[in-house]
UniProtKB/TrEMBL annotation:
<feature type="transmembrane region" description="Helical">
    <location>
        <begin position="323"/>
        <end position="343"/>
    </location>
</feature>
<protein>
    <recommendedName>
        <fullName>Integral membrane protein</fullName>
    </recommendedName>
</protein>
<keyword id="KW-0472">Membrane</keyword>
<keyword id="KW-0337">GPI-anchor biosynthesis</keyword>
<keyword id="KW-1133">Transmembrane helix</keyword>
<feature type="transmembrane region" description="Helical">
    <location>
        <begin position="182"/>
        <end position="208"/>
    </location>
</feature>
<keyword id="KW-0808">Transferase</keyword>
<dbReference type="GO" id="GO:0006506">
    <property type="term" value="P:GPI anchor biosynthetic process"/>
</dbReference>
<comment type="pathway">
    <text>Glycolipid biosynthesis; glycosylphosphatidylinositol-anchor biosynthesis.</text>
</comment>
<dbReference type="GO" id="GO:0000009">
    <property type="term" value="F:alpha-1,6-mannosyltransferase activity"/>
</dbReference>
<feature type="transmembrane region" description="Helical">
    <location>
        <begin position="12"/>
        <end position="36"/>
    </location>
</feature>
<dbReference type="GO" id="GO:0031501">
    <property type="term" value="C:mannosyltransferase complex"/>
</dbReference>
<dbReference type="InterPro" id="IPR007315">
    <property type="entry name" value="PIG-V/Gpi18"/>
</dbReference>
<dbReference type="GO" id="GO:0016020">
    <property type="term" value="C:membrane"/>
</dbReference>
<keyword id="KW-0812">Transmembrane</keyword>
<feature type="transmembrane region" description="Helical">
    <location>
        <begin position="109"/>
        <end position="129"/>
    </location>
</feature>
<dbReference type="GO" id="GO:0004376">
    <property type="term" value="F:GPI mannosyltransferase activity"/>
</dbReference>
């Protein structure tokens, strides 16, 4: 049931959201500029690179390669005979859009990439507010937008990464799910399938949604047409989540080309191993904390997530948001190997910020903002700044 409207801001909602977003980007820009001015020469740039060059490090170079040269027809093979790192680990939608901007606007890669990320980040922020405003008071939704705009990994909103586009598509898909505009989710899901890995998690969330509505059909209508439509959309999401694996296999002639390429990145930690569902987190726990402490830490993380999902603040976000949080959490723990980039991979859980924004205490909110800003600076120092042979990629 939709909440009774509460007094909103004195300015239009979109302007309030835009101003919050702009404030967050100013803060992040200052942080990035400070780090760029102190950045030593590295594999991507010389010393003291420009802000735009500094914003295009790490995976931004892979997206640059894709935008300019596309994907290799043959996979690189290491001296030990394993599949090495290549562009196939990165999906094509974001670099394709950036390429279009480069051609139409006659601008270099770093300008186009950062610009596209910013536009999608703003769009994601606007949709995020509209999504939350359906289930929580307006002021709570606005504070959640504040947390979204200054989150520890919010620098991604203005870096040459596909995360902004991914978060926008997830926000739109969840908003359409809440509105029960299932058919409109299909094009969003298909684009998401070629942006960042998340479509399989969305398929699971749609499955939970179908089961929930079917179980509640005596109190709320769930006509046959909608039952079929939700099932079809869930199926499309599941297929979409596997399409890039098939395409990579067909083009390169190696059936497991995508998975082997992804596994090449974690080989620096645990060597080359097959992907077994839910094992990456176990292996990671033993890499970071060998023995009993590693297992206890992993169990603690899972327990904290479960307890958080059962809190009243999360329940007030609505069943569809909770289905997404649970589905993406399961997906993450099933396939990803936790290391420094895990902070970035947690970004699709952003609807949970609506629950963190629930307490109205001014002290609580000020402390939370300060902690978020401190963590953002820490993330940039640890993950984005390049420090010699850096093993903490973002």
């Amino acid at each position: 049931m939709r909440r009774r409207p509460t007094p909103g801001p004195r300015v239009p909602w979109w302007l309030a959201v835009f101003l919050i977003f702009a404030g967050g980007r100013i803060v992040t820009t200052v942080m990035l500029a400070i780090l760029a001015n102190n950045q030593a020469a590295n594999a991507w740039t010389g010393a003291q690179p420009s802000l735009l060059d500094f914003s295009s490090l790490w995976d931004g170079r892979w997206y640059n390669i894709i935008a300019v040269s596309g994907y290799p027809s043959e996979l690189p093979i290491t001296a030990e005979g394993h599949v090495g790192e290549s562009a196939w680990a990165f999906l094509p939608a974001y670099p394709a859009i950036v390429r279009g901007v480069m051609v139409i606007g006659s601008v270099p890669w770093n300008v186009a990439a950062v610009g596209v990320s910013l536009v999608f980040a703003l769009a994601a922020t606007l949709v995020f507010y509209k999504l939350l405003a359906r289930v929580v008071p307006v002021q709570q939704a606005l504070f959640a937008v504040v947390l979204f705009s200054i989150a520890p990994v919010s620098p991604l909103f203005q870096l040459a990464y596909a995360e902004s586009m991914q978060l926008f598509l997830i926000a739109v898909a969840l908003y359409l799910l809440m509105l029960r505009r299932y058919g409109w989710m299909i094009p969003v899901i298909l684009v998401l399938s070629f942006t960042r890995p998340a479509a399989l998690a969305l398929a699971l969330a749609l499955g939970f949604h179908w089961i929930y509505r079917f179980g509640k059909r005596s109190r709320g209508r769930f006509p046959m047409r909608e039952r079929v439509l939700v099932a079809v959309v869930a199926f499309i999401a599941a297929v979409g989540g596997l399409l890039w694996l098939v395409i990579a296999g067909v083009v390169t002639g190696v059936p497991d080309a995508y998975l082997s390429t992804e596994l090449a990145w974690r080989s620096a930690y645990i060597g080359y191993q097959d992907l077994l569902p839910f094992m990456p987190w176990v292996l990671s726990s033993q890499w970071w904390l060998p023995g009993l402490w590693g297992y206890l830490a992993l169990a603690g993380i899972v327990l904290v997530f479960i307890v958080f999902m059962l809190t009243p603040a999360v329940k007030k976000l609505g069943v569809d948001v909770r289905f997404w949080l649970a589905s993406y959490g399961l997906y993450l723990i099933a396939v990803f190997f936790p290391q420094s980039s895990t902070f970035r991979l947690l970004a699709p859980l952003f609807p949970a910020l609506g629950a963190l924004a629930a307490p109205r205490s001014r002290v609580y909110r000020i402390v939370l903002v300060l902690v978020s800003l401190a963590l953002q600076w820490g993330w940039l120092l640890i993950c984005w700044r390049v420090d010699g042979y850096d093993w903490t990629p973002p």
